[in-house]
Every structure is written in structure tokens, then in C-alpha cells.
Design a protein that fits this description.
This is 60S ribosomal protein L18a-like protein. Keywords: Membrane, Transmembrane, Transmembrane helix. It comes from Dendrobium nobile. The chain crosses the membrane at residues 40-63, 75-99. The protein is α+β, with helices and mostly antiparallel strands and 100 residues long. It has one domain (3-99). 46% of the residues lie in helices and 12% in strands. The protein has helices at residues 39-47, 53-63, 74-99, and strands spanning 3-8, 14-19. A two-stranded antiparallel sheet has the order 1-2. Helix 2 (53-63) crosses helix 3 (74-99). The termini are far apart.
Length: 100
């Protein structure tokens, strides 16, 4: 969808110029995210409920700066990292409680 830009002459009349956009019409952040539109981070977070190892994959992506490709991924990857931290803490507490 092309956009219009205003240009004012020396007089009081206003001209509208057609500004051409790229071929697809998508902006850099207008494209839908991967994994059903929610992004790889939120997908890892949601599927991590069923298989917690997926949270560690999301944590790896978070610490390897995967979100620099698309900043919209950062929140989901951070949520996966926090979930992995909580899961690890719960596992350590459970193991200590069983052994002691």
C-alpha cells in the first residue's frame, strides 16, 4: 500500500506525492513472526510447559542474542530464560530435599 507525502509550494497550495514502498508492502516489523505468529520465544515458553527442555533452548537463544534479528522476540526469549531458571531451582531443591 503506497503512502502519500505532502509537499507545500511557495503558494498556499499543497501537493501530494506518491511515495513508493518496497515490492511487498511490508515494513521490517510488519511481517508476522515465526511459529504461528507468536515468535520463537513465546513458542518455546508455551511448549516448555509440556517439555521443560524447550525452555533451555529458548535460554540459549536469548543468551546468543537471537533477538537482534528481530527485537520482538526478546520478551518471549526472556520469559523462557526465567522459566528455565525457576525449573532449575525447583529441581535443585527437590534433589536436596530427597537426599537430605
Amino acid at each position: 500500500m503506497p503512502f502519500a507525502a505532502m509537499e507545500q509550494d511557495k503558494g498556499n497550495s499543497v501537493k501530494y506525492l506518491l511515495v513508493k514502498d518496497d515490492e511487498t508492502g511490508w515494513g521490517i516489523y510488519d511481517k508476522p513472526l515465526r511459529c504461528f505468529g507468536c515468535g520463537i520465544g513465546w513458542f518455546c515458553f508455551l511448549t516448555g510447559v509440556l517439555c521443560p527442555l524447550v525452555w533451555y533452548y529458548g535460554t540459549y537463544l536469548y543468551f546468543s542474542n537471537h533477538y537482534r534479528k528481530d527485537p520482538r522476540e526478546r520478551a518471549g526469549l526472556a520469559a523462557s530464560a526465567i522459566a528455565a531458571l525457576i525449573c532449575s531451582a525447583a529441581a535443585v531443591i527437590t534433589v536436596l530435599a530427597v537426599l537430605l
